[in-house]
Design goal:
single chain, cell membrane, SRP/SRP_N, GTP binding, hydrolase, 12 helices, EC 3.6.5.4
Protein backbone atom coordinates (compact mmCIF):
# COMPACT_ATOMS: atom_id res chain seq x y z
CA UNK A 1 0.00 0.00 0.00
CA UNK A 2 1.35 3.43 -0.93
CA UNK A 3 0.96 4.75 2.62
CA UNK A 4 3.73 2.46 3.81
CA UNK A 5 6.91 3.76 2.27
CA UNK A 6 10.14 4.15 4.23
CA UNK A 7 10.14 7.51 6.03
CA UNK A 8 12.38 6.91 9.04
CA UNK A 9 16.04 5.98 8.89
CA UNK A 10 16.86 2.28 9.31
CA UNK A 11 18.21 2.88 12.85
CA UNK A 12 15.19 4.90 13.96
CA UNK A 13 12.81 2.30 12.52
CA UNK A 14 14.63 -0.51 14.34
CA UNK A 15 14.32 1.42 17.61
CA UNK A 16 10.59 1.88 17.02
CA UNK A 17 10.13 -1.82 16.16
CA UNK A 18 11.98 -2.86 19.30
CA UNK A 19 10.09 -0.37 21.48
CA UNK A 20 6.73 -1.75 20.35
CA UNK A 21 7.75 -5.41 20.61
CA UNK A 22 5.80 -6.16 23.83
CA UNK A 23 2.63 -4.49 22.57
CA UNK A 24 2.89 -6.24 19.21
CA UNK A 25 3.59 -9.65 20.73
CA UNK A 26 0.67 -9.38 23.16
CA UNK A 27 -1.73 -8.24 20.42
CA UNK A 28 -0.82 -10.96 17.92
CA UNK A 29 -0.90 -13.71 20.56
CA UNK A 30 -4.51 -12.72 21.27
CA UNK A 31 -5.29 -12.40 17.57
CA UNK A 32 -3.90 -15.82 16.67
CA UNK A 33 -6.08 -17.45 19.35
CA UNK A 34 -9.13 -15.52 18.12
CA UNK A 35 -8.80 -16.78 14.54
CA UNK A 36 -7.63 -20.31 15.35
CA UNK A 37 -9.59 -22.76 13.22
CA UNK A 38 -11.20 -19.94 11.22
CA UNK A 39 -10.56 -19.28 7.56
CA UNK A 40 -12.95 -16.38 6.97
CA UNK A 41 -13.40 -12.98 8.65
CA UNK A 42 -16.95 -13.42 9.95
CA UNK A 43 -19.04 -11.94 12.78
CA UNK A 44 -17.36 -14.15 15.39
CA UNK A 45 -13.90 -13.04 14.28
CA UNK A 46 -14.97 -9.38 14.30
CA UNK A 47 -16.46 -9.73 17.81
CA UNK A 48 -13.21 -11.27 19.03
CA UNK A 49 -11.19 -8.58 17.25
CA UNK A 50 -13.25 -5.87 18.94
CA UNK A 51 -12.51 -7.41 22.33
CA UNK A 52 -8.79 -7.66 21.53
CA UNK A 53 -8.55 -4.02 20.43
CA UNK A 54 -10.32 -2.78 23.56
CA UNK A 55 -8.16 -4.99 25.81
CA UNK A 56 -5.09 -3.62 24.00
CA UNK A 57 -6.07 -0.11 25.18
CA UNK A 58 -7.00 1.19 21.75
CA UNK A 59 -10.16 2.57 23.41
CA UNK A 60 -13.84 1.81 22.75
CA UNK A 61 -14.57 4.71 20.38
CA UNK A 62 -11.56 4.08 18.17
CA UNK A 63 -12.14 0.31 18.24
CA UNK A 64 -15.69 0.76 16.94
CA UNK A 65 -14.40 2.95 14.10
CA UNK A 66 -11.85 0.27 13.16
CA UNK A 67 -14.46 -2.52 13.25
CA UNK A 68 -16.81 -0.41 11.08
CA UNK A 69 -14.05 0.04 8.52
CA UNK A 70 -13.25 -3.68 8.45
CA UNK A 71 -16.95 -4.59 8.16
CA UNK A 72 -17.19 -2.24 5.16
CA UNK A 73 -14.10 -3.90 3.67
CA UNK A 74 -15.61 -7.38 4.17
CA UNK A 75 -18.89 -6.28 2.55
CA UNK A 76 -17.04 -4.79 -0.40
CA UNK A 77 -14.61 -7.67 -0.97
CA UNK A 78 -17.24 -10.36 -0.20
CA UNK A 79 -14.63 -12.79 1.09
CA UNK A 80 -11.67 -12.04 3.31
CA UNK A 81 -9.55 -14.81 4.79
CA UNK A 82 -8.25 -14.62 8.37
CA UNK A 83 -4.73 -14.84 6.95
CA UNK A 84 -5.33 -11.36 5.48
CA UNK A 85 -6.52 -9.82 8.76
CA UNK A 86 -3.11 -8.47 9.76
CA UNK A 87 -2.73 -6.58 6.46
CA UNK A 88 -6.31 -5.32 6.60
CA UNK A 89 -5.89 -4.04 10.16
CA UNK A 90 -2.67 -2.31 9.22
CA UNK A 91 -4.24 -0.59 6.24
CA UNK A 92 -7.52 0.40 7.89
CA UNK A 93 -5.95 1.80 11.07
CA UNK A 94 -3.42 3.74 9.00
CA UNK A 95 -6.32 5.02 6.88
CA UNK A 96 -8.27 6.06 9.98
CA UNK A 97 -5.33 7.98 11.44
CA UNK A 98 -4.47 9.49 8.06
CA UNK A 99 -7.81 11.31 8.10
CA UNK A 100 -6.34 13.81 10.56
CA UNK A 101 -3.51 16.05 9.45
CA UNK A 102 -1.32 15.37 12.48
CA UNK A 103 1.43 12.86 13.12
CA UNK A 104 3.13 13.46 9.78
CA UNK A 105 6.42 14.85 11.08
CA UNK A 106 9.70 12.93 11.07
CA UNK A 107 12.19 15.35 12.67
CA UNK A 108 12.44 17.49 15.80
CA UNK A 109 11.60 21.00 14.61
CA UNK A 110 10.25 24.29 15.96
CA UNK A 111 8.67 27.14 13.98
CA UNK A 112 11.33 29.47 12.61
CA UNK A 113 9.15 32.55 13.14
CA UNK A 114 9.02 32.12 16.94
CA UNK A 115 12.23 32.92 18.76
CA UNK A 116 12.53 31.95 21.48
CA UNK A 117 10.02 29.13 21.02
CA UNK A 118 8.61 28.50 24.51
CA UNK A 119 7.36 25.03 25.50
CA UNK A 120 5.59 24.54 28.83
CA UNK A 121 5.55 20.88 29.88
CA UNK A 122 2.76 19.50 32.09
CA UNK A 123 1.83 16.05 33.41
CA UNK A 124 1.45 14.14 36.67
CA UNK A 125 4.49 13.00 38.63
CA UNK A 126 6.06 9.75 37.45
CA UNK A 127 5.06 9.86 33.77
CA UNK A 128 8.58 10.68 32.58
CA UNK A 129 8.08 14.43 32.30
CA UNK A 130 11.57 15.53 33.33
CA UNK A 131 13.21 12.78 31.27
CA UNK A 132 11.17 13.85 28.24
CA UNK A 133 12.36 17.44 28.72
CA UNK A 134 15.97 16.27 28.90
CA UNK A 135 15.64 14.17 25.75
CA UNK A 136 13.90 17.03 23.92
CA UNK A 137 16.72 19.36 24.94
CA UNK A 138 19.21 16.84 23.56
CA UNK A 139 17.40 16.49 20.23
CA UNK A 140 16.99 20.23 19.74
CA UNK A 141 20.63 20.81 20.65
CA UNK A 142 21.75 18.17 18.14
CA UNK A 143 19.75 19.97 15.46
CA UNK A 144 21.72 23.14 16.18
CA UNK A 145 19.24 24.93 18.45
CA UNK A 146 20.27 26.83 21.57
CA UNK A 147 18.15 25.53 24.47
CA UNK A 148 17.48 26.88 27.96
CA UNK A 149 15.63 24.87 30.65
CA UNK A 150 13.51 26.23 33.51
CA UNK A 151 12.93 24.19 36.69
CA UNK A 152 9.48 25.52 37.62
CA UNK A 153 8.43 22.31 39.41
CA UNK A 154 9.49 23.82 42.73
CA UNK A 155 7.32 21.57 44.89
CA UNK A 156 9.81 18.70 44.79
CA UNK A 157 13.54 19.11 45.33
CA UNK A 158 14.02 15.88 43.36
CA UNK A 159 12.40 17.42 40.28
CA UNK A 160 14.79 20.37 40.33
CA UNK A 161 17.80 18.12 40.88
CA UNK A 162 16.73 15.69 38.16
CA UNK A 163 16.38 18.49 35.63
CA UNK A 164 19.82 19.78 36.65
CA UNK A 165 21.28 16.33 35.92
CA UNK A 166 19.73 16.41 32.44
CA UNK A 167 20.93 19.96 31.81
CA UNK A 168 24.48 18.92 32.74
CA UNK A 169 24.25 15.77 30.62
CA UNK A 170 23.02 17.60 27.53
CA UNK A 171 25.17 20.66 28.16
CA UNK A 172 22.44 23.30 28.26
CA UNK A 173 21.88 26.15 30.76
CA UNK A 174 19.19 25.81 33.43
CA UNK A 175 17.42 28.41 35.55
CA UNK A 176 16.46 27.16 39.01
CA UNK A 177 15.56 28.43 42.45
CA UNK A 178 15.14 26.80 45.82
CA UNK A 179 12.38 24.27 46.51
CA UNK A 180 9.19 26.08 47.48
CA UNK A 181 9.92 29.12 45.31
CA UNK A 182 7.16 30.65 43.20
CA UNK A 183 7.00 28.61 39.93
CA UNK A 184 5.94 31.70 37.98
CA UNK A 185 9.04 33.51 39.22
CA UNK A 186 11.25 30.69 37.88
CA UNK A 187 9.44 30.79 34.53
CA UNK A 188 9.88 34.58 34.34
CA UNK A 189 13.60 34.35 35.11
CA UNK A 190 14.03 31.54 32.57
CA UNK A 191 12.48 33.55 29.77
CA UNK A 192 14.52 36.63 30.69
CA UNK A 193 17.68 34.50 30.65
CA UNK A 194 16.67 32.80 27.39
CA UNK A 195 16.05 36.10 25.63
CA UNK A 196 19.38 37.47 26.89
CA UNK A 197 21.18 34.35 25.63
CA UNK A 198 19.38 34.51 22.26
CA UNK A 199 17.94 31.02 22.85
CA UNK A 200 16.00 29.25 20.11
CA UNK A 201 14.01 27.01 22.47
CA UNK A 202 12.99 27.45 26.12
CA UNK A 203 11.47 24.46 27.93
CA UNK A 204 9.68 25.02 31.25
CA UNK A 205 9.01 22.12 33.64
CA UNK A 206 5.92 22.46 35.86
CA UNK A 207 4.56 20.68 38.93
CA UNK A 208 2.81 17.38 38.34
CA UNK A 209 -0.12 17.62 40.70
CA UNK A 210 -3.66 16.87 39.61
CA UNK A 211 -5.44 16.31 42.92
CA UNK A 212 -6.92 19.81 42.79
CA UNK A 213 -7.70 20.96 39.27
CA UNK A 214 -8.66 24.47 40.39
CA UNK A 215 -5.25 25.04 41.98
CA UNK A 216 -3.51 23.51 38.99
CA UNK A 217 -5.43 25.71 36.57
CA UNK A 218 -4.70 28.83 38.63
CA UNK A 219 -1.01 27.98 38.85
CA UNK A 220 -0.58 27.26 35.13
CA UNK A 221 -2.56 30.38 34.23
CA UNK A 222 -0.31 32.47 36.48
CA UNK A 223 2.84 30.96 34.90
CA UNK A 224 1.50 31.78 31.42
CA UNK A 225 0.59 35.34 32.43
CA UNK A 226 4.00 36.03 33.92
CA UNK A 227 5.85 34.53 30.93
CA UNK A 228 3.91 36.83 28.61
CA UNK A 229 5.51 39.83 30.32
CA UNK A 230 8.76 38.69 28.69
CA UNK A 231 7.60 36.92 25.50
CA UNK A 232 4.23 38.26 24.45
CA UNK A 233 2.67 35.08 23.03
CA UNK A 234 4.35 32.52 25.33
CA UNK A 235 3.96 29.65 25.77
CA UNK A 236 3.83 28.68 22.13
CA UNK A 237 3.27 25.03 23.03
CA UNK A 238 1.81 23.27 26.08
CA UNK A 239 3.08 19.68 25.96
CA UNK A 240 1.26 17.09 28.08
CA UNK A 241 3.35 14.02 28.92
CA UNK A 242 1.43 10.75 29.41
CA UNK A 243 2.70 7.37 30.60
CA UNK A 244 1.73 4.85 27.91
CA UNK A 245 2.15 1.92 30.32
CA UNK A 246 -0.93 3.10 32.27
CA UNK A 247 -3.21 2.34 29.31
CA UNK A 248 -6.68 3.76 29.84
CA UNK A 249 -5.46 5.89 32.74
CA UNK A 250 -3.49 7.89 30.16
CA UNK A 251 -6.81 8.72 28.45
CA UNK A 252 -8.19 9.91 31.78
CA UNK A 253 -5.14 12.07 32.51
CA UNK A 254 -5.44 13.61 29.06
CA UNK A 255 -9.10 14.45 29.72
CA UNK A 256 -8.34 15.99 33.12
CA UNK A 257 -5.39 18.08 31.97
CA UNK A 258 -7.16 19.35 28.87
CA UNK A 259 -9.90 20.62 31.19
CA UNK A 260 -7.35 22.31 33.45
CA UNK A 261 -5.30 24.05 30.76
CA UNK A 262 -5.03 24.48 27.00
CA UNK A 263 -2.90 21.51 25.94
CA UNK A 264 -1.58 21.80 22.38
CA UNK A 265 0.52 18.62 22.00
CA UNK A 266 1.08 15.22 23.64
CA UNK A 267 4.04 12.97 24.39
CA UNK A 268 3.38 9.30 25.23
CA UNK A 269 6.27 7.69 27.11
CA UNK A 270 7.41 4.24 28.34
CA UNK A 271 5.98 2.31 25.39
CA UNK A 272 8.95 -0.08 25.38
CA UNK A 273 8.10 -1.52 28.79
CA UNK A 274 4.42 -2.22 28.21
CA UNK A 275 1.95 -4.24 26.16
CA UNK A 276 -0.39 -1.23 26.12
CA UNK A 277 1.07 0.51 23.07
CA UNK A 278 -2.36 0.48 21.41
CA UNK A 279 -3.19 3.47 23.60
CA UNK A 280 -1.27 5.68 21.15
CA UNK A 281 -3.67 4.69 18.34
CA UNK A 282 -6.69 5.59 20.48
CA UNK A 283 -5.25 8.85 21.82
CA UNK A 284 -4.12 9.90 18.34
CA UNK A 285 -7.63 9.26 16.99
CA UNK A 286 -9.77 10.61 19.83
CA UNK A 287 -8.17 13.81 21.02
CA UNK A 288 -8.14 16.90 18.87
CA UNK A 289 -4.55 17.33 20.08
CA UNK A 290 -1.61 15.87 18.15
CA UNK A 291 0.58 13.16 19.63
CA UNK A 292 3.92 14.79 18.89
CA UNK A 293 6.46 12.50 20.58
CA UNK A 294 6.65 8.89 21.77
CA UNK A 295 9.14 7.29 24.15
CA UNK A 296 10.28 3.86 22.93
CA UNK A 297 13.32 3.23 25.13
CA UNK A 298 15.50 4.53 27.94
CA UNK A 299 18.32 5.87 25.76
CA UNK A 300 18.73 9.59 25.19
CA UNK A 301 17.81 9.12 21.49
CA UNK A 302 14.81 6.89 22.21
CA UNK A 303 12.34 9.76 22.25
CA UNK A 304 10.98 9.88 18.72
CA UNK A 305 8.82 12.26 16.75
CA UNK A 306 5.49 10.42 16.39
CA UNK A 307 4.77 9.49 12.81
CA UNK A 308 1.48 7.62 12.63
CA UNK A 309 2.29 5.73 9.41
CA UNK A 310 5.62 4.45 10.77
CA UNK A 311 3.94 3.62 14.09
CA UNK A 312 1.15 1.55 12.53
CA UNK A 313 3.65 -0.12 10.18
CA UNK A 314 5.84 -1.16 13.13
CA UNK A 315 2.88 -2.30 15.21
CA UNK A 316 1.30 -4.49 12.53
CA UNK A 317 4.19 -5.40 10.25
Amino acid sequence: MSLFKRIFSKEKKETLDKGLEKSKSSFFNKLSKAVAGKTKVDDDVLDNLEEILVSSDVGVETTLKIIDRIEARVAKDKYLGTDELNVILREEIAGLLAETNVGNETEFTVPSDKKPYVIMVVGVNGVGKTTTIGKLASQFTKSGKKVVLGAADTFRAAAIDQLQVWADRVGVPIVRQEMGSDPASVAFDTLKSGVTQNADVIIIDTAGRLHNKVNLMNELTKIKRVMQKVVEDAPHEVLLVLDGSTGQNAFEQAKQFTKATEVTSLAVTKLDGTAKGGVVIGISDQFQIPVKYIGVGEGIDDLQVFNKIEFVDSFFN
